[in-house]
Design brief:
Low-confidence stretches: none
Radius of gyration: 20 Å
Strand content: 25-35%
Number of helices: 9
Length: about 325
């Protein structure tokens, strides 16, 4: 039942905020996307269990600099961020695996997770289960309260009784169009108290060849990840997409300073989604946009967060300036 907690082990429980609303939301989102003049499917639907596993593979690829660069920053500065809090809730939005949060905790003096409650938020219950069981096994004092939820819709359901750090890593913020990005910053700022923090990971603008290589690995893992979103739509909406009938395309758009990831139809086709119901016609060469990944400049993000009432407390980056970890406070 929606909102009820399920105890997984003595220090780990899960609360489901989705239930039937998830089916309604994916139906609405996919209908709007596939009837748009420029067809799209929201990237948040990549992350079912197979999609999460494929993304973990992507993070280990040599071309995909984002994860290892962000982790190197977390290992260097995590102690400075965590050690000033006697007790803290770590609220990680779009959490996926627990690799990054583990690096953050390990870098502090609390090697067993004492005084920490970890609150991962993800639409994939299987990803939450795997991460929660792993982190409670590794950190003997930490408590975990997982939320099966869409963080763009369900932030109000999270506990708000302790000092917290809201965490959005992996440059996930870059997946949102600018108006949605602004709304998300507003929502996060509204949920924060004066002593809370917002920890934000940002992929910075750099040579486009480096960026494009990260999304076009020769092993084809990113292509498989991209096509998996069609499997999700087929399963959830009784669709008959044939993923093998699409090619993976990812390129850097210099005008918008963003990667765009598409699925390009190899031939003309008609696709039916029985649950909605909807019939979609695609011409040969027509694409469905599955992800944007905006790359950032410091002045742009400072201006955008300031308009939401957030101020930069600390700004950390790697030696090449490829990735940044920003600690924000309520202004």
């Amino acid at each position: 039942m929606k909102g009820e907690k399920t105890l997984i082990n003595p220090r780990f429980s899960i609360c489901n905020c989705l239930d039937s609303s998830f089916e309604q939301n994916i139906a609405k989102d996919v209908f709007l996307g596939l009837t748009s003049p420029r067809k799209y499917i929201p990237s948040k639907y990549f992350y079912d269990a197979p999609g999460s596993r494929l993304f973990d593979e992507i993070c280990a690829l040599p071309e995909y600099y984002l994860t290892r660069t962000e982790i190197s920053i977390l290992k260097e500065v995590g102690g400075r961020i965590l050690d000033s809090y006697p007790c803290i809730d770590l609220v990680e939005m779009g959490s996926g695996s627990c690799r990054k949060i583990s690096c953050l905790i390990e870098s502090s003096h609390r090697h067993q997770g004492s005084g920490i409650r970890y609150i991962p938020v993800d639409v994939s219950e299987s990803a939450l289960l795997a991460a929660g069981e792993e982190i409670t096994s590794f950190f003997k004092e930490i408590r975990v309260l997982g939320f099966v939820a869409d963080f763009t819709r369900h932030l109000r359901h999270l506990p708000d009784t302790r000092q917290k750090i809201i965490i959005l890593l992996g440059s996930t913020i870059g997946n949102f169009p600018v108006p949605e990005m602004r709304r998300l910053f507003d929502m996060i700022a509204f949920s924060m108290h004066s002593d809370d923090r917002f920890l934000l990971g940002l992929d910075m603008v750099k040579d486009s060849a480096i960026i494009e290589a990260a999304y076009n690995d020769p092993q084809g893992v990113t292509a498989s990840f991209n096509k998996n979103i069609l499997h999700v739509v087929n399963r959830e909406l009784s669709g008959d997409f044939q993923p093998e009938a699409f090619d993976h395309l990812a390129f850097f758009n210099p005008d918008l300073e963003q990667i765009e990831m598409h699925l390009v139809a190899r031939h003309s086709m008609t696709v039916t989604l029985g649950t909605i119901p909807l019939t979609v016609k695609l011409e040969k060469g027509e694409s469905i946009c599955t992800e944007i990944s905006r790359k950032f400049r410091r002045d742009t993000i400072e201006d955008m967060t300031a308009k939401a009432g957030l101020a930069v407390h600390s700004w950390f980056t790697d030696s090449r300036g490829w990735f940044s970890l920003v600690e924000l406070v309520k202004d």
